[in-house]
Amino acid sequence: MIDRIHHVGIVVHSADEALGFFRDILGLTVTEDRVVEEQGVRGVLLALGENEIELLEPTRGDTGVARFLESRGQTLHHICFNTDDVEAELARLKGLGVELIDESPREGLAGRIAFIHPKAMHGVLVELATPPEGAHVSSEKGFDHLAVTVADYEAARQTWKQNIGLEVVNEIRPEGRGMVIGQMPSGQCIVELLAATEPDSPMAKRIAEQGERASSMVAIEVQDLDADVAKYRAKGLTLPDPAPGALPNSRTSTISADQAFGLAVQLIEFSQPS
Length: 274
Ligand code: CO
Known about the structure:
Layout: E1 2-11, H1 15-22, E2 29-36, E3 41-48, E4 51-58, H2 64-72, E5 75-83, H3 86-95, E6 106-108, E7 111-116, E8 126-130, E9 145-149, H4 153-164, E10 170-172, E11 179-186, E12 189-196, H5 202-210, E13 213-214, E14 217-221, H6 225-234, E15 243-244, E16 250-255, E17 264-270
Parallel strand pairs: 1-4, 5-8, 9-12, 14-17
Antiparallel strand pairs: 1-5, 2-3, 3-4, 6-7, 7-8, 9-13, 10-11, 11-12, 15-16, 16-17
The chain binds cobalt (II) ion (CO).
C-alpha cells in the first residue's frame, strides 16, 4: 500500500554544490550518498521529517537524467511514493492498463523502485519505492505540501485516486486567483492539484505555457516565519517579506528556485494549527 511521499527528486549539475544549500544552509541530514552506475547518477538523499529530498547528478552524458538536465536545467524530476510492496503496486497498475516505465522493480537509491510513465500521471513522473530494512524512517512531519498543475481537474483527480490512492479531501478557491486547489493528503504531506477556474487567470496562463507538471517546489511548515526569514537572510539568501499565502490562515515566504538548485522552498506559517 502507498502510504506517504518518500522523496522528491531534483536533477542538479553538482551534488556537492547543492549540498552546500540543502545540508549546510537548510540543515538537512544526508541519509544516502552513492553512485548508481546503471542509472549513471550520483544520488544523495537528505532527510526532512518523514520525507526526503533526492539530489541526482548525472555522472555520464548518455542517460535520461543527463538529457533532462540539458533540456530543462536544474528542476524537479520526479515525486516518489513509499509502498511496502512495490511488486504488488506494479501488478495492480498493470491490471488497470497504466503505462509504466518499469515493468518490474529494480534497485535504486531508495530501495526497490519503479517508475510510472508521466503520460499516465498528467505530466508528473512518479516513482514507487519499497525501502530496505533499516532505511531512514521518521514520524515527524516533513513537507507541508507539494503542488501539481493540471489542465483537467476532474480527470486528474480520478487519475491520482486510481493510480496512487490519493483523494481530494478539501477544495480551496482562493479569493480573486481564478483557481482551485484540491488537497490530497499522503502521510503528513498534502499533494495539491492546482487548476484554473477562469480562462484569464495566472494559473490558466501557467498551464498554457508549461503544460501539466509538478511544480518544482516544496513547502515546509515553520513555527516562526519572521525568525526563519531573518535566519536565511543572515546566511546570504534573498527572501521576500512574509505575505499572506493562498492557503487559509497562512503567511509565506520563499527561497527561490535559483537559490535552491532548482527546487523552490516555500516557508509557510499557519496562524491556526494546520
Ligand atoms: Co527518486
